[in-house]
Amino acid sequence: MGEWKEYKISEIADVIGGGTPKTSIEEYWNGDIPWLSVVDFNTGRKYVSDTEKTITNLGLEKSSTKLLQQNDIIISARGTVGALAMLAKPMTFNQSCYGLRAKYNVSVNDYLFYLLKNTVKELQQVSYGAVFDTITRNTFDETDILLPPLEQQKAIAEVLSSLDDKIDLLHRQNKTLEELAQTLFRQWFIEEAKDDWEVVTVGKFVKTNVSTIKKDSSIKTIQYLDTSSLTEGKIDTFQQLNLVDAPSRARRIVKHNNVLISTVRPNQKHYGIMKNPTEDIVVSTGFCVISCEKINPHFIYMLLTTDDMTEYLHSIAEGSTSTYPSLKPSDIEAVEFLLPQEEKLKVFSDYADNVWNKIDSNYIQMKTLENMRDTLLPKLMSGEVRVKF
């Protein structure tokens, strides 16, 4: 460790501030330049590739936002403090974030990314105590880190990047598999639907919210899934809780192939299919838990998660009288669709079962790789584990 040296983060990286073009000037928006906010990269993945909003060259010129380069790092400084990603292409960003770029011949962006990932808790502690918890430029001036020689930085980053690259590949493979299934579903059951197919409702084939856990259950510790931790089929994390201390929303019991759809703000796409859950998994009452007893669950999942259906369900939710736009299970049960011929439905069901078996297998691999990366990260960053270079 003698060759490792102590620095402040600002001594090894350039810190770059962002900005927002005036929203009242239409000419500044909807151009060709990606414009980042934290919702675009608060995913836990290494790279951010797309943004919800874009700006024009004029918007870039007339605002304080800067254009970051490919492989620069973005970190959220307000609200959700410490979300982190590397840029897959040049992007601009808002004032609630900072861009960071490793200083030449001192560090490299790949290593800087993992250093920041390992230092997020320290950054949050330095920011603690403001009116709003915020990372400022002073945070980077005040945070101490130990930095190994440049070649060792590159070797450490290569080990961790190889794991993240494999995770990213599996994510992209899953996205492709699901998109292919969605394309086939749309072609067969929407575009090529026949006039003589029977109009039926979802409720004819499914049951909703079948099982609820009680406080006196023999299960004392649960893995709790809230709605924000499931997005477009991907589970982010479970919360380990004692059942007696769990929030009142932790009540729904789930089974294999149950379809989960958030009843609050359906347009946020908090939905997925539960695969082989352990008996201690409990999900929020914010989900409608759909048991597909008489039809393939992947058919129902595809039906209820198309963009058109998501928009339709959200329109129903916005008409509700509750505090937030929300659905009732009966709203989902009342959804109508054209029932295809049994043979065609079986062919699709067999195909979809194989697709989701592969998707689920990929998620298991991802979790293994993520655990390996997260275990190695602090050991490599502290020098406890050394790599040859």
| Average pLDDT over all residues | 94
Between the first and last Cα atoms, what is the distance in angstroms? 15 Å
Q: Kindly report the CATH topology of the largest domain.
A: Adenine-n6-DNA-methyltransferase TaqI, Chain A, domain 2
Could you say how many structural domains there are in total? 3
Radius of gyration: 24 Å
Strand line-up in the sheet with most strands: 2-9-6-7-4
CATH class of the largest domain: Alpha Beta
* Content of β-strand: 15-25%
Q: What does this molecule look like?
A:
By secondary structure, the protein is an alpha+beta fold. It folds into 3 domains: 5-147, DNA methylase specificity domains (Adenine-n6-DNA-methyltransferase TaqI, Chain A, domain 2, Alpha-Beta Complex); 149-193 and 341-389, Orthogonal Bundle (Helix Hairpins); 198-339, Adenine-n6-DNA-methyltransferase TaqI, Chain A, domain 2. It contains 10 helices and 22 strands. The chain has helices spanning 9-12, 38-41, 57-61, 109-127, 137-142, 150-191, 297-305, 307-318, 329-333, 342-382, and strands spanning 5-8, 13-17, 29-36, 47-48, 53-55, 73-76, 84-87, 92-93, 97-102, 144-147, 198-201, 206-208, 221-225, 230-231, 234-235, 239-242, 250-253, 259-262, 271-273, 281-284, 287-292, 336-339. The strands form 7 sheets. The protein has a 5-stranded mixed β-sheet with strand order 2-9-6-7-4. A hairpin with a 7-residue loop joins strand 6 (73-76) and strand 7. Helix 6 packs antiparallel against helix 10. The radius of gyration is 24 Å and the shape is globular. The mean pLDDT is 94.
